[in-house]
Amino acid sequence: DQQVKQNSPSLSVQEGRISILNCDYTNSMFDYFLWYKKYPAEGPTFLISISSIKDKNEDGRFTVFLNKSAKHLSLHIVPSQPGDSAVYFCAARTSGGSNYKLTFGKGTLLTVNP
Amino acid sequence: KAGVTQTPRYLIKTRGQQVTLSCSPISGHRSVSWYQQTPGQGLQFLFEYFSETQRNKGNFPGRFSGRQFSNSRSEMNVSTLELGDSALYLCASSPGLAANTDTQYFGPGTRLTVL
């Protein structure tokens, strides 16, 4: 059973526009969420995170929104740049008991066209 | 600060052999987690070590094992390699003291090919 789902395998946007990447989860015990960006044959690069006590977190061009009742989060990138083209992974964790296991979605390939 | 380093970056082995991968976390970080990435299964958690003790474990067979040294460096071992073990193996480093806020930072990975 996939506990973290990224239902869009790919997304294409124009440079300068907004990119919105979505993620749904089923485990209500998840209380910390992270977004990573990944290029082929490289490790994931941390972008932004959000705790379940918040519903929004911003860092520069990146904003993550969390809707706990819908078990849904989204990553907004504004404005999108060609260098943002990569696979984006949503990951979730339950923090109880010093749990550091991340459960990942399958990823969304973002392509930003010049 | 230097990032997470993994060695070797690439490895080719044959079925039945064993392999050891190494991970050096960010200085000051005491938690090291290991993940396997394959095209079919995505990124899956193997295990996590903190202060030389395995603290969390994923759903992998006993052929996959690890350890952590007093300097927080970690090694992962896979014995009796199978074709399906071909994957990108990633380690992630974090301070390890606050699971509700810690960020995990990944290394570049080791690409293992089993022939």
Describe this structure in words.
The complex is a heterodimer of chains A (114) and B (115). With 114 residues, chain A is mostly beta strands. Chain A is built from no helices and eleven strands. In chain A, strands 2, 4, 5, 9, 10 and 11 form a six-stranded mixed sheet that branches. In chain A, 37% of the residues are buried. By secondary structure, chain B is mainly β. Helix content of chain B is 0%, strand content 52%. Chain B has no helices and eleven strands. In chain B, the strands form two sheets. In chain B, strands 2, 4, 5, 6, 9, 10 and 11 form a seven-stranded mixed sheet that branches. In chain B, strands 1-3-8-7 form a four-stranded antiparallel sheet, with no helix packed on it. Chains A and B meet through strand 4, strand 5, strand 9 and strand 10 of A and strand 4, strand 5, strand 9 and strand 10 of B.
Topology summary:
The complex is a heterodimer of chains A (114) and B (115).
Chain A: E1 4-5, E2 10-14, E3 19-25, E4 32-38, E5 45-51, E6 56-59, E7 62-67, E8 72-77, E9 86-93, E10 103-104, E11 108-113
Parallel strand pairs in A: 2-11
Antiparallel strand pairs in A: 1-3, 3-8, 4-5, 4-9, 6-7, 7-8, 9-10, 9-11
Chain B: E1 5-7, E2 10-13, E3 19-24, E4 31-38, E5 42-50, E6 53-57, E7 64-68, E8 74-78, E9 87-94, E10 105-106, E11 110-114
Parallel strand pairs in B: 2-11
Antiparallel strand pairs in B: 1-3, 3-8, 4-5, 4-9, 5-6, 7-8, 9-10, 9-11
